[in-house]
Amino acid sequence: MSDSPKSRYAAFARRVVEAHAAQLLRDLQIINERTVRELGPLPHGGLPVQPKRKPKPAPWVQPVQELAARDADAPLAPQLPHTETGGSEMVKLGDSVNEQPLPPVPVPQKLREILNEYPEYIQRLQCALDRYARNPDSLMPFDAAIWILEAHLDSFLSEAREELERAQASGDANAVKMAEEKERSTRHARSRNRGMSDLDQLWNYIETHKESLT
């Protein structure tokens, strides 16, 4: 049946995916617009194309030319003893320098406090920041993170105002009161004098992990 729980869940999941995709496109558009505003438009014809160069082979794969001319009576180089671990020193070295996964990007504390009654909004901010950390802006990582937050907070405020309009149209006093509280919270969260006034935690995170983010 079309109204079965399974079909309703599939429709809900599809709407969630579409909403996230639309939000991601809005994020990219905002980043592009602000990058152009800060750095100016691209030069005519685009950025110059860098010629591709053939990578230099690693030292351990280059042929050793001296072996053919080596004196037959010269002593052989000492061989490294074989270990029983079964792994090479190269693998061990690689394992020791593997990058540790980045911790989650912190949602600013003031935003958490203002939106504490709406955990779904906090979760959406967390997901957006984590997605951004996987593909950050190398030129202005902190500014771009702020733009991501602002874009989502704008979206939250628009959603809250639409919900308030629907509640007012319904005439339900309780729904109107709840919608007004949500509109007020999202408006305060978006304000640079309130929710966006203290971004030190986000700044410290980017400064701490800037080598991994750029």
List the helices and strands and how they pair.
Layout: H1 5-39, H2 89-96, H3 109-114, H4 119-134, H5 141-170, H6 173-190, H7 200-208, H8 210-213
Helix pairs in contact: 1-5, 4-5, 5-6
Structure commentary:
By secondary structure, the protein is mainly alpha-helical. The chain has a domain of 110 residues. The protein is elongated.
* Rg (C-alpha, Å): 28 Å
Please tally the helical runs, counting DSSP H or I stretches of 4 or more residues.
Answer: 8
Number of strands: 0
Give me the strand/helix succession. Answer: HHHHHHHH
Q: Tell the overall outline.
A: elongated
Q: Tell me about the largest β-sheet.
A: none
User: How far is the first residue's CA from the last residue's CA?
Assistant: 51 Å
Poorly predicted runs are 83-97
Query: Which range does the strand content fall in?
Result: under 5%
Q: Structural class per helix/strand content? A: mainly alpha
Residues in helix, %: 55-70%
Region (Disordered): 39-59, 167-195
